[in-house]
Amino acid sequence: MPPVSMPPSEDARAIFRRLGYSVSGDGPDFVAERKWRTVRVTAVSDGDDLNGRRLLADGGEPSGEYRFRCFVAPKEATGDVQHRLASVDPGYEWAVIGVGDDGDYDVHRPEAS
User: Are the C-beta atoms of 47 and 78 separated by less than 8 Å?
Assistant: First the structure.
């Protein structure tokens, strides 16, 4: 049986706190706020973890509720998460943060069209 991968929830919280955001909420979904910006953050273990989550403006997250979304995943899963988000073209601005085993991270945004 393959090992179970857990979403990097605590890494996500630590990253946003280091960036000066206040963080509220428990589990893999939380809200990060700083000045005028509110970001809904979702920690995922891989692209398949997005299945069943409400991602789209049509039938998903209300488009007016959170303009900014960030998905935090292990570094090796960031390409898959980016691909899945780009394929559904959600009605909000998004980014994917890839977290390494050493706590180092990279930020990925969709390509401009």
Answer: no
pLDDT digits (tens, 9 = 90+) for 23-35: 999 889 999 999 9
In the structure, what pLDDT confidence band is assigned to residue 10 with cuts at 50, 70 and 90? very high
Token pair belonging to 69? 């979304």
State the SS3 of the chain.
CCCCCCCCHHHHHHHHHHCCCEEECCCCEEEEEECCEEEEEEECCCHHHHCCCCCCCCCCCCCCCCCEEEEEEEHHHHHHHHHHHHHHCCCCEEEEEEECCCCCEEEECCCCC
Q: Which of 56, 104, 48, 107 is nearest to 77 (CA)?
A: 48
Contact predicate 34/20, CB 8 Å: yes
Spatial CA neighbour of 28 closest among 6, 56, 46: 6
